[in-house]
What does this fold into?
Amino acid sequence: MDTRLLEDALILLEERSLTAAAARRNVTQPAFSRRIRALEHWIGKNLLIREANRVELSPTLLQSEPQIRALLAHLRQLHGHLKNSEGTGEPLVLATQHSLSVSVVPEILRKFRTSGRTPQIRLRTQNQVSAMSTFLRHEADVLVSYEYRELPQVPFDDTVDRYVWRRDTLLPVVGGALRHDLLEGQILPPDAPCIDYPSGSFFGQIVSLHQNKAERAWIGRSTVESAFSVGISQMVLEGTGAAWVPHSLIQNHIISGDAVILSPEYGRLPLDIVLYTHVSNPRGALFRKSVADLD
It folds into this structure.
């Protein structure tokens, strides 16, 4: 059997929708439905409850999610072991958020290579939800992600190791010509242009939560909305607007004076940069141990 059919089933379990699952797999919904039918034919049992106006996941499929995850993880581990035994080796797959791939992952890899280990690294940059999903499907050996302590923690059990690499901070900053327009105490002038995160994004949730209790409200004229913090940091430097940006992304520009941190009254939002590895994955565990021992 093609293991991609099991991966299809797992994505369907995650999305709970044929349309969304097909989009994740970059195929049409009819094509995705045919693949699910092929899996049903191989198993000899329906995995979907098909009615006139709707399709639901069967109890059998819902109850089988842990076994499907475990089987796929075992097959990937076996595949890697067989390739390694032939001396070819597989890249170590590291999933992370876009901002961390620019600011923090290079320092982690630099530290890892000082341990004397030089495997090929395959970097997968995604938004936080997608990176976490990739890791949970055992398609990545290591997950590097932000955590904000006032948001619900990721629902990992004791099969996942968690190691805090270091701290970071989400800062209110401004650059370009706008940094010369600040009021006394590094306060934004009324109606200042601002760059916002979508409310459903990771940083958007953090900023929204903080605004409810901030000493000084973040009020301004929203000119751009983007979930891409790397792009936002560049727009800040161009003077497009004020924004919340991770310190690790913009620290060199703060030192040079190209960006200015706004008043402490707006707040400072502490973040943890965390490495996650599956206990059952020896490659990921070795990576985490190598960088932790050198820290």
